[in-house]
TrEMBL record:
Every ABC transporter domain range: 29-268
Listed InterPro entries: AAA+_ATPase, ABC_transp_ATP-bind, ABC_transporter-like_ATP-bd, ABC_transporter-like_CS, Oligopep_ABC_C, P-loop_NTPase
Keyword 4Fe-4S recorded: no
Protein name: ABC transporter ATP-binding protein
Residue span of region Disordered: 1-21
Keywords of this entry: ATP-binding, Nucleotide-binding, Transport
UniProt similarity note: Belongs to the ABC transporter superfamily.
Record GO terms (molecular function): ATP binding; ATP hydrolysis activity
PANTHER family membership: D,D-DIPEPTIDE TRANSPORT ATP-BINDING PROTEIN DDPF-RELATED, TRANSPORT ATP-BINDING PROTEIN
GO biological process, any: peptide transport
Keyword Nucleotide-binding: yes
Short name of any one Pfam family annotated for the protein: oligo_HPY
Length: 360
């Protein structure tokens, strides 16, 4: 039997003693969108490396407009990168319609707004079975729909078959969306703000569901969020994104208990559970059509504004010297002249303190 599947991906396991091939990886990915009336193009994704291993949950964290959704859409094959490449199982992702259809059976998207994701005129059964009909269902369709709903926590599944979205709670609608993805038995899901529209009482249930699916099915996930508390509760690894670049990456414990980049520290400081003083960023929100020279965070950087970077002898580099693209693997890394210099506070806090784990 061939080890190469319908998408052209080599599924053979890595030889003993070698590093396993990431399930999904981006290498040097760049995506731009043209500006209006001759304006400069918006550099939504400006050189990103990112790996997701089998059974791994990676949180892609950043504020609105940082490029995280554009990166997620590129990883799904919905946006063609102008540079770099996306690989699945070690093989470059082909962008022709046949290859993408096979690929999307194995990589599914879960959107943040279940009300907008579900057709109000379709029953739960029709919503979950839609993907099965598009891709062709091997075996009984009814059994596959029932299994997906049960795995998503809607039991007994037959009770929900003929219900419409308006008859469900917000948490139940999100479970239907997740069931629609699970029906195709994907290897990876991309969840874009999966609990942002849900009540606090339901958020924990959906996060627990995603963790259970990882444990039971070996499912990998890329969770796109602005919420560091969510990342702490669900992710194995965190990648912090700012203005089209990943500026800090590492395990969730490394990044969220000892943040090195001033942007990560600022995001973490506003959570009520952290033991550091809140940081209020000044300056204009980042504009992807006007990426500044040097460190792209320097116009808003609290360390540079306080004079600490100049005192450490790196202020000039912060303003003029670009930083390299961080590796996409599990190695902890930061793209910050100050953090990489002797002037960085031990432990990553502005006052050298340790940030306690956030909670949701």
């Amino acid at each position: 039997m061939s080890a190469v599947d319908e998408t052209g991906t080599d599924r053979r396991e890595a030889p003993p003693g070698t590093t396993a091939v990431p399930l999904l990886s981006a290498s040097g990915v760049r995506v731009s969108f043209p500006g209006r009336r001759g304006a400069a193009a918006a550099r939504a994704v400006d050189g990103v490396d990112l790996d997701i291993g089998a059974g791994e949950i990676v949180a892609l964290v950043g504020e609105s407009g940082c490029g995280k959704t554009s990166l997620a859409r590129t990883l799904l094959g919905l946006v063609r990168p102008e540079a770099g490449r996306v690989c699945f199982g070690g093989a470059p992702l082909a962008l022709d319609s046949r290859a993408l259809k096979a690929y999307r059976k194995r990589v599914q998207l879960v959107l943040q707004d279940p009300s907008g994701s579900l057709n109000p005129r379709h029953t739960v059964y029709e919503a979950v079975s839609e993907g099965l009909r598009i891709h062709g269902c091997e075996g009984g369709e009814r059994e596959a729909v029932a299994e997906a709903l049960a795995r998503a926590g809607l039991r007994p599944p037959e009770r929900f078959f003929l219900r419409y979205p308006h008859e469900l709670s917000g948490g139940q609608r999100q479970r239907v969306v997740i069931a629609g993805a699970l029906a195709l038995r994907p290897e990876l899901i991309v969840a874009d703000e999966p609990v942002a529209s849900l009540d606090a009482s339901v958020r924990g249930e959906i996060l627990a569901l995603l963790l259970r699916l990882r444990d039971e099915l070996g499912l990998s996930a890329l969770v796109v969020t602005h919420d560091l508390g969510l990342a702490w509760n669900i992710a194995d690894r965190v990648a912090v994104m700012y203005l089209g670049r990943i500026v800090e990456t590492g395990t969730v414990e490394e990044v969220l208990t000892h943040p090195q980049h001033p942007y990560t520290q600022a995001m973490l400081s506003v959570l009520p559970e952290t033991a550091v003083a809140p940081v209020v960023l000044s300056g204009e929100p980042p504009d992807p059509s006007r990426v500044p020279p040097g460190c792209r965070f320097h116009p808003r950087c609290q360390v540079l504004a306080s004079g600490a970077a100049d005192a450490a002898g790196v202020g000039g580099r912060c303003r003029t010297e670009d930083l390299p693209v961080l590796a996409g693997d599990s190695t902890a890394a930061v793209a910050c002249h100050w953090a990489l210099s002797a002037g960085a506070a031990p432990g990553g806090g502005l006052d050298g303190g340790r940030a306690d784990p956030p909670e949701t």
